[in-house]
Amino acid sequence: MSYVDEVIETVVKENPSEPEFHQAVKEVLESLRPVIEKNEAKFRRDALLERLVNPERQIKFRVPWIDDNGQVHVNTGYRVQFSSAIGPYKGGLRLHPSVNLGIIKFLGFEQIFKNSLTGLPIGGGKGGSDFDPKGKSDREVMAFCQSFMSELCKYIGADTDVPAGDIGTGAREIGYMFGEYKKLRGLFEGVLTGKGLSYGGSLARTEATGYGVLYILEEMLKCHGIDIKGKIITVSGSGNVATYAIEKATQLGAKVVTCSDSTGWVYDPDGIDVPALKEIKEKNRQRLREYPKYRPNAKYFDGKGVWTVKSDIAIPCATQNELTLEDAKMLVANGVIAVAEGANMPTTAEATEYFLDNKILFLPGKAANAGGVATSALEMSQDSERIKWSFEEVDTKLKHIMINLYHSIDDAAKKYEMQDNFVVGANIAGFEKVVDAMDAQGIV
Ligand code: NDP
Ligand code: 2IT
User: What is the mean pLDDT of residues 164-182?
Assistant: First the structure.
């Protein structure tokens, strides 16, 4: 049996009930076959892949907190410190009832390669909890965040592990967590990114993931002789990534006609109204159902349906496995030319394969959404230097990072004679740097 197949089999056997982690490992290792095969004997002797798929450390802890009625709740907290080969662990914290160890491991594993692709010195990690911030009062969210951080603070630090936001963790949650860290550790340091601008946050971090998706997408299209201007785009999600992807797409002259949340979706033939979206989701924390009140021409539908709308480009920005084979078939039948993953692994393995087989230009999440963590690394730099760059400075650096990133995955795909297969390109380009660093640092 080949080394790759052997390791995939072991991962599945040793980590039962973690299907998302299996999916992420399979995708990466399958892509790496040509690289591994070239060096199989050495990699096997060094147990390189076993070291890559086993987190350096995983922390699981109890998070008790008290609700507004005096009831005590207990959630589970996680931090998976996956790889510090190229820098301190870096990656977000997801707060969502679906969170479990397998989901955090898939996200942490992806993060290793994504962070490597940014070209910046950040290792891979991820964390979170099955706590659901939805419908909770600010005080309840604060109680949870403080309890969560009272344990997490033992394992993180500006030079060891720097968490950030993800689903359910935005500026409010980061603020409460930062306050508790500072109080318990007595350190005002860049231990979290996505901080508020008044206490060490970076301009453009809020916008970075969504903007970055559009910067890399624009570059990919440009290199294929396609202008993004005038294109019809379907987006899913209506959180941080979706909102700023829609904003930048609109600024670039495209028209985004859909967005969604976990209860339903919106079709707006005139293009999504970003200020309305921000007011509903960011400011009022309401459901998308409210949207037609702002835009009478728009329609709201319960359930799933964004991918049934005809578009040139699809940008999934909600959650993993939200775009299925059936959705991919519909998008292709409707003439989609490109897909960029704003979310982490939003496309199922079968749907990804279908896009690639049909020659759709497909940008995987670890490349397309890397602008968020890249800008987090820029926030770390500013914190260390005790300075603040302007919005334009950060945005320009972000744009350069995304353009360079596109060319590194394009070059890697071409080098292995798989032109336009950016799944393979991203996995190989991300892996090469990590492996080089692991090799240099010995067996640790
Ligand atoms: P937010 O919490 O801001 O928004 C998440 C959006 O997705 C909401 O519209 C939410 O709907 C919807 N959603 C979440 N879970 C589900 C689900 N199970 N089914 C249907 N809809 C769902 O998160 P972000 O925008 O930050 O994150 C979105 C994706 O992007 C995630 O995959 C995340 O890992 C990834 N990502 C985020 C980065 C960042 O910087 N924030 C960076 C790189 C990737 P509702 O409002 O109803 O909950
Ligand atoms: O998935 C991701 O890259 C993020 N949630 C952002 C991580 C970060 O550290 O900014």
Answer: 98
